[in-house]
Amino acid sequence: MISGNLKSRVLSNAEKAKKYIDGLTINSPVNIPEKVIEGDSFFTWDNEKRSVLSQPYLFQWSYYNGVVFEGLYDIYLANGEEKYKTYAKRYLDLLIDEGGLIFRRAGYVNCHGADCYKTAALLSRFAGCNKNYDNVLRALYEDLTSENKQNDDGKAICKDFAESSLGGNFWHTWRGCRPPKRYKLWLDGIYMIQPFLARYSVFCGDNSQAEKIARRIKYVAENMRSPVGLYFHAANGGGDNCPYFWTRASGWYAMALVDVAEAFTGVNGYVTTVCGDALKAFTDGILKYRMANGMYLNLTDRPESFTNRGETSGTSMIVYSLLKGVRLGLLDESYIQPALESFCGVCESKLSCEGLKDIYFKASANGENNYENAADYLTDEGKGVGPFIMAYSEALRLI
């Protein structure tokens, strides 16, 4: 049972979150999906600003925008308000024209790597909506599943950038036909690709993908989980793991588990069971590291310090995964209270009139400690804003 005090906090913080989210997105005078007549422009949450300068648009086909817009679509599913769905669809309409992807790939999606399939998961929500969407979805899906489809480097992604020794998982990047940094498999990449594959394979009735997706998830659960219950950020297999437990990386994996399970609910019980077992093990491992205010540190198991703070993106991901896991029946209701306490912790300690703060910018899985740079704690960064919106959407369902 949830205490009356916690209920009151959740209601108050949900109102606070809604005001912030609406102000940053659907009610914002600047964050409007639109073509740009001159120069370059960016959503305020896009701190990476990796734009192809010659293209007149206000967006990227990549994960930091994808998670924000998918979070807004989740709000639509939670409360039925069309304005959230319309805003997300407007973004997609600008990405896609009669010929397919309007930015003509520009080094992204079929060359860059796993990150750039995140927006495809949003697009898959609209599968069957119109032929232009379906053409793009089909092309993106074939990139990842067909050995006859080559990317711009002349490689078949599912053959040349996935390894049996890694459970059939994809390398995190494959641009230039080289593995990324030092480690090939990142927890981040599980979330970027597998929910899209799960949703679209179910939509198009491709039963061949279910076992492959389950195998990839199971590999991570069995080979990247440490004896203390936390997950290494990245790995090469054979015990060669990146020696850091980054909360956001773990959060990406947990989100993948619930999103994949949702796609296969009522369709494939084996995949759902694999996801549920992995989520339970993940949750029981990470809950031990929850701070008194509900937050999780950027480096999960290290002492709190000025450079290792309670981190917003990873905490929001855990909130989303726990609440959605309960909703899907993967976890029992005892997990609701710690999830809601963490949601309140984010709202009360990280959300103010200045925005949503302490979102860690990025950390490369290269074996070095690039997870504790004070300058990398940003405000209103998309990789934290999106998961926060998703966490809010799940809290909203309970309310």
Could you give the distance between the termini?
14 Å
Number of strands: 10
Q: What average pLDDT do the residues reach?
A: 91
The main sheet orders its strands as 1-2
Estimated structural class: mainly alpha
Mind telling me the C-alpha Rg?
Answer: 20 Å
Shape: globular
Low-confidence stretches: 54-58, 103-107
* Helix content range: 40-55%
Helix and strand run:
HHHEEHHHEEEHHEHHHHEEEEH
Give the biggest sheet: 2 strands, antiparallel
Strand residue content: 5-15%
Work out the helix count.
13
In words, what does this structure look like?
The protein is mainly α and 399 residues long. The chain contains 13 helices and ten strands. The strands form five sheets. A two-stranded antiparallel ribbon has the order 1-2. A two-stranded antiparallel ribbon has the order 3-4. A hairpin with a 5-residue loop joins strand 3 and strand 4. The longest helix is centred in the N-terminal third of the chain and has 21 residues. The radius of gyration is 20 Å and the shape is globular. It starts with a helix and ends with a helix. About 3% of the residues have low confidence.
